[in-house]
């Protein structure tokens, strides 16, 4: 994928990723939102453990001036790999928003470093996350043991080679 194509994808979608700041006091728009209060606190606590390394941070997804979900990178790249995570607020489930959020995370990662391998992990079952990843050109690699989550499926983004 070339950079012009990535910029086009960013422009054509009205979804925006809004960064979660390093300190809780700097995230008032999220701490005042009942959909965000738990996840913004988790994001800031995550930064305390792994560091605050933009763009490899947490984000909220905004669509038509509404916060619809959240996403993040599980740390900065290690050995040329980055893992994405994402979620959609329940009132926005089954509307294609998870697919858009995952795509935005892939586009941002590749715009930052086109050589990265992008991965994701899901519960080891066919579910909405598996469908979201398949729609975004991720391939199931198999089951792995995650130190925090136990047995999970690992996915890898398949870059378009055209």
In short:
This protein has 162 residues and is an alpha+beta fold.
Overview of this structure, please?
The structure is a single chain. This protein is an alpha+beta fold and 162 residues long. The chain has helices at residues 3-12, 28-31, 37-50, 97-112, 128-135; strands at 16-19, 58-63, 66-73, 81-88, 117-122, 138-146, 150-157. It starts with a helix and ends in a 5-residue tail after the last strand.
Secondary-structure map with pairings?
Blueprint: H1 3-12, E1 16-19, H2 28-31, H3 37-50, E2 58-63, E3 66-73, E4 81-88, H4 97-112, E5 117-122, H5 128-135, E6 138-146, E7 150-157
Tag the structure with descriptive keywords.
alpha+beta; single chain; 162 residues; seven-stranded mixed sheet
Task: Assign a percent range to the helix content.
Answer: 25-40%
Mean pLDDT: 92
Strand ordering within the main sheet: 1-2-3-4-5-7-6
Overall structural class, as computed from helix and strand content, comes to alpha+beta
The parts where pLDDT drops under 50 for at least 5 residues are: 1-12
* Alpha plus pi helix count: 5
Strand element count: 7
Order of helices and strands: HEHHEEEHEHEE
Question: What is the makeup of the main sheet?
Answer: 7 strands, mixed
How big a fraction of the residues is strand?
25-35%
Q: Describe the global form.
A: globular
Termini, distance in Å?
8 Å
Kindly provide the radius of gyration, computed on alpha-carbon positions and rounded to a whole number of angstroms: 15 Å
